[in-house]
Amino acid sequence: MASPSSDNSGLGFGVRWAELWVRSLGGSAYGRGMSGYRVLSDEQVEHFLDHGFVVIRECFTAEAAAELTDSVWTRLGYDPDDKSTWAAPSIHMPSHRRFPVQEFAPKAWDAVCDLVGEDRIEKPYQWSDAFIVNLGEGADRPWQDASAEVGGWHKDGDFFRHFLDSPEQGLLTLVLWSDVRHQGGATFVAADSVGPIARHLADHPEGVLPTEFPIMDLVGQCTDFVEATGQVGDVYLLHPYLLHAKAQNVLRLPRYITNPPVHLTEPMRFDREDPADFSLIERAVLRGLGVDRYDFVRTAEREAVVPERVRRQAKLKAEEEARLAAN
Questions:
Q1: What integer pLDDT is reported at residue 327 of this predicted model?
Q2: Could you say which of 1.10.3470, 1.20.120, 2.60.120, 1.10.8 is the CATH number of the domain covering 11-326?
Q3: 41, 59, 167: which is closest to 114 by C-alpha?
Q4: Res. 307: pLDDT tops 80
Q5: Cα–Cα distance, 64 to 1 (Å, whole number)
Q6: What are the DSSP E strand ranges found in the chain?
Q7: What are phi and psi of 141, to 5 degrees?
Q8: Which of 49, 58, 298, 308 has fewest C-beta within 10 Å?
Q9: Eight-state DSSP code of residue 274
Q10: 12 confidence band (pLDDT: 50, 70, 90)
């Protein structure tokens, strides 16, 4: 949790960036389009159901991003002009600031509402400056295209026991705070992994701990692999069942993203009486299972897990605060 002096979750912080966004993109109000959704087209809806993700372009400006990323090098203690100081090729930074997505990136917020349902989103829904910085991961190896063999595949959610209906993650996001080029440290996505994960979780009503997923077997069932490139301000919205992996940054161009999850107010349901009440997240699970409805009954209690990264990031945050204070 950010300190009181650095937690900018109040209206002033969000409004300032919302104004930057409005000035360059021409507005922040989105009505419902012909598709019946706030921002998603029918084609985007079908793409999400078939491939588990959708890309929302130009959700915020490069100017707005820079206000958050300008302190990255001070926080890291690296010289941006001297690569010999880049001690770690990839760093998961802790957060110092949090801010409401609805104000900072209203188009992204509306797309999340389209996928999940606004009343099913646990609030406040915030982003932060907990950047995942890729300065040259795998730059010492020849480039490998996305495939099941590249390594590093995982399912997000190291902090809870996973069930088919888990509310802890209703949606994953990849927020691009810098341009992300081909071979420049993007995220690889297994776009057909919703089905394998859904079937595995349906077969395990007792739940699956984060370390218990048979990742190689699951990603081995996939054939549709995507490199999530884009421009600063683009946002990838991913189904929580999508497997993904860190791609190499052979270009050694600094890449900044964040990946905050969307939490749900209650568990997903796959047995709703009215099919129109299914969220797009739930519909994708049912499509992955190959059924119209599914009566899921878990056989174990929900369980929180404290991951090692919590201790690691607490140490990093103390180090960053010291560098920022000295700057």
A1: 85
A2: 2.60.120
A3: 41
A4: yes
A5: 22
A6: 53-56, 90-92, 98-100, 126-128, 132-134, 172-176, 187-190, 225-227, 235-238, 243-246, 255-258
A7: -125, 150
A8: 308
A9: S
A10: very low
